[in-house]
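debug: dumping io for the single-chain case to check the tokenizer round-trip. Nothing else runs in this session.
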Amino acid sequence: MANHPHHSNALLNVAVVGHTNTGKTSLIRTILRSTEFGVIEDAAGTTRHVEQATISADNEPILNVYDTPGLEDSRALHAHIKKLQAKSRLLLPAQVLEHFVTHVAVNDPLEQEAKVIRQVLRSDILLYIIDVREPFLEKYRLELDILTQAAKPIVPVFNFIAGHQQELALWRQNLAAYNMHATLEFDTVAFTFEAEKRLYQKMQTLAETYYTPLQKLIDYRAKLWNQLCLSGAKRIADLIVSVACYRENKMMKHHQIANSLTEDRLHDFVRKAEQRCLHDLLSLFNFLEKDVAIQNIPVSNGQWQLDIFAPGILKAYGLDLGSAAAKGAAAGAGIDLMVGGMSLGAASALGALAGAGWSTFKRYGDEIKATVQGTTWQCADENTLRVLYLRQKHLLKKLMHRGHAAQDALQVDQVDLEKLPDQWNKLISALRQNPTWQDSSVARNAHPQFRDIEAKLVDALLDER
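debug: decoded output
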């Protein structure tokens, strides 16, 4: 790669411009991964002043991005600039714009527009944000006419494109008439990291002298994004591990009350584990609890309002309600009776062989002995684990594709579209046979079998990124 010269001290200045309410602040929020920047409302002209944010790669500032007020009266601005041009024919178009911003009076009706043009003239690249749902009206022609006079490279950015392919094609056609072909699709609601990467690549081609720092930013952002998705998947794997390994000691027969308390403890453990996971995933992706609605039922204080043990939940997840275990879970049981990770049948068969001496069954010795003595454990059943996994996988996918401009609560629905990992039953069975893996430890994390299970869960969670 050729060495590109670079302004060692100056940062690349990028102005985000366009008509009011097309999603300028939204775009900046999305690339900053923050819901805090600026104000977003449906009212026209929400941004009244130029706001600035700096984007860095590993603590090295790379570019400044400027959120400008919307151009509200492009007709009056266009007419005013035409007049100025007529007066001073010797000036270049950009010099006419300079003259306009220098001489505009405070409280002038075009003061808002002057703020935008002033920032445009100080910037290296303009991102012209377009809401493709709007037709290509005269006001947009006038805006483009004015902006091109600043003699700055312009990248038209198409926003709100999901489900508006026809409108998008029309916009492309109209912009081609202005010789604008280097456009970008960047939906600030339905986010993809690929679109963000292409945004910086467009800047590279338009501001050649900043090629190297922008490449540093692309590489850094890609690394960060992969780490973020991986952390999310690992957090879910951790939830599945801790719930699959969890067990409650079941009392001897005739302890009806004690046993129902044991069930309550198990349910409580599963619910709380899932709530903590939800909370951690939202924090990781920098979203708030109010951003998520599970199955159209909102979350309050980080709690799924949809209870994992509520009747009908299995059906919602496309799980078979025919099996006896599923019927139990649907009734809110969600519990398997187990002995050391084996079904009772298998355990009693082994128990029958126990006379051969405990040494033969070193690994399960204590548990087989306990079985023979009548001790059993209660664990979260397989259907509960499935629902947990499918729900988190769906949530992770939604978080990876949610722009920080999205205003509506995230709907976690169609979970039946998600797939379980290959050899799911085998993975769960191995976890259940290792109750000591419930909590993180050096020994657990170094164990080859555990690492293999975690890797399989993580790969399956990220398989369709």
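debug: round-trip ok. The mean pLDDT is 77.
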